[in-house]
Amino acid sequence: MAKIEILDTHTINQIAAGEVVERPSSVVKELVENSIDASASSITVEIKGGGIELIRITDNGTGIEKDEIETAFLRHATSKIKLAKDLNTVTSLGFRGEALASIAAVSMVELISKKPKQITGKRVVFEGGEINASEEVACPEGTTFIMRNLFYNVPARKAFLKSPSTEGAKISDYLYKLALANPHISFKYFRDNKLIFQTSGNQELKPVVFQLYGKDIAAQTIPLYTKVEHIEIAGLLGKPSISRGNRNYENFFINGRFINSALLQKAVEEAYKTLTMVGKFPVAILHLTMPPEQVDVNVHPTKLEVRFKNSQSLYDFVYESVLMTIRETNMVPTISEAKQIIAKPIDNKVDSQQVLVESFFVPHKTPEKLQFDKLVNKPETPQQSPKIFEPTIQVEQKTKSVTQPLPKRGIDYDIIGQIFETYWLIKHHDKVFVMDQHAAHERVLYEKFMQDYTNSTVHSQQLLVPETINLSPLEMNTIKENIDTLNKLGFLLEIFGDSDIIVREVPYIFNMAMPISKFKVFLEDFRSSSNIYLSEEERIITMSCKAAIKGNDKIDMVECDKLVQFLLALDNPYSCPHGRPTLISMQKIDIEKLFKRV
Fold first, then answer.
1. Cα–Cα separations (whole angstroms), residue 258 to 43, 76, 175, 186, 208
2. Which alpha helices (DSSP H) does 220-306 contain, by range?
3. pLDDT in tens, 257-301
């Protein structure tokens, strides 16, 4: 065995650099965070060759004292903390004192800095961790940090870097996060001499979103603010119509620090659960402010991961805040928005087409303030059609009938008619709404099922003739394992022999029992091997989908009117539980523009 020896400082710094400096974006992160900690109000970032060739960071912050600049490049030299106990209350982005030493160890570095009101500043040059030059120079207040040839002296590390375009994209992504985290700071970002973005630093978040994500996304965001005791959350939420195909647009900040948090992701996505399509994720820029002692940021050198002292309480706070904001906001997409959702690849950069932002006739919590005097247009002789809110003739009452009264109409609208045997045209003042009868009915059923299930008031009705269904051994085992859940959902099933079940009761909702034909379809999905482990809420979503009227099912205007009234009485009438819109809208002026009348 070789002799055990203490490593020299140069080798130690190169090893330590592996934790702090993984790639060019790591350098940008550390240096820009230093600028932010120095109270800079303006930060300029320039990169070349994906940040491998050159990174230059210029700020107008407080600068560094001349006699402290060389000390700043020593490992664990920092002005952010003094003692270990300070870690419990640290508010700065950096505090470990590792960044400058690590960067200087694996690149060629030049730093120029001057404190306010000083006549001159100081310039120092490092190469491979060794100081090459140190001199006083004339320079503006603030700090300029120049890094060249990253990993020039560690070829094994350099070989693992991606292409300049990929590394540059990672830098761009992180600068987006820093700009969103600090709307009070003016950022300029140049990539290979081309200006990528510039923010004003006027403290408003939406202009930053406009600059980074485009006006289409900025126009479809809604503000959020909630404060409970010492914790507050503020930011912007995207409407479901601009949901993305990945989580890149979910941004979380704790006390001004961007973090990756599965906890916060889960809270936001659960709040959006029945508003977004499967595989789509919400746009969210959320700033949380809390006492420093409630969060541990000293988990990893990158400081992207944190631990929360009260995770469950924080989850509940974020979930409820997002859910409350969504429910209080119009979520109906316009025709133009619906077209964009279909026509554009979900992750393409937004174009400059103007987005229409308009209000929706959401029923107010105080309906007495709403005036209406028109009656819905109804046919003189209704056609025979499925009655979606009336009982079928195949069932008999087991108990006293539970009637579901129609909600009071608080909206003035006219039903124009049905098109394609699926969509209903509804006029409201100078707007026309198109309602998907399946999505709308599914949402109404889901809300009622969930309410009854949560309150343990699910009602059942006996079948006149019990239905026997034959199952395979695997299917029978699935039913046995989930018999309690099925009972809670309103089904009364009896196992008969080794391969049959007898259906004696089915759920009874809105004066209607689920037809046995739809139960069979629901059961097919329920016993599917890929759906065995769905949650009870997901079971209810499936049951609502199977029980709802379908496209091409004919219903008359009377039934449509009932459906509209029940839909508008909900807190969330905007989408089915799978995230598909129930309504889209078009204004009169949009139609007039199409016909060149205005």
1. 17, 23, 11, 17, 15
2. 262-271
3. 898 889 999 999 999 987 887 778 999 999 999 988 888 765 655
> Which residues sit opposite 433 in a β-bridge?
426, 585
Q: What is the dihedral angle through the alpha carbons of 306, 309, 312, 313, rounded to the nearest 10 degrees?
A: -120
Pairing of strands 250-254, 284-289: parallel
pTM for the full predicted model: 0.60
Q: What are the pLDDT digits (tens) for 415-459?
A: 888 888 888 888 888 888 899 888 888 888 888 878 777 777 777
CA distances to 16, 124, 437 from 69, rounded to whole Å, are 20, 8, 69
Residue among 356, 367, 340, 331 at smallest CA distance from 430 = 356
Reported as a single tens digit per residue, the pLDDT across 334-392 is 655 554 443 333 333 333 333 322 333 343 333 333 232 332 333 333 344 455 554 44
User: Residues 6 or more apart from 592 whose CB is under 8 A from it?
Assistant: 598
CA 499/CA 469 separation, integer angstroms:
8
Angle at 507 between CA 500 and CA 572, to 5 degrees: 135
Q: Tokens for 184? A: 């009070």
With contact defined as beta carbons under 8 Å apart, do 504 and 463 qualify?
yes
Report residue 277 as tokens: 């399509």
Q: For residues 152 and 360, what is the distance between their CA atoms, to the nearest angstrom?
A: 59
Residue 47 to residues 37, 54, 165, 195, 200, Cα–Cα distance (Å): 21, 5, 11, 11, 20
Name all domains of the chain by residue range, CATH numbers in brackets.
9-198 (3.30.565.10), 205-343 (3.30.230.10), 367-586 (3.30.1540.20)
HSE-CB of 208 using CA atoms within 13 angstroms: 22
- CA gap 310, 521 in Å, rounded: 43
- Beta strand ranges found along 69-155 (DSSP E): 108-114, 121-127, 130-137, 142-148
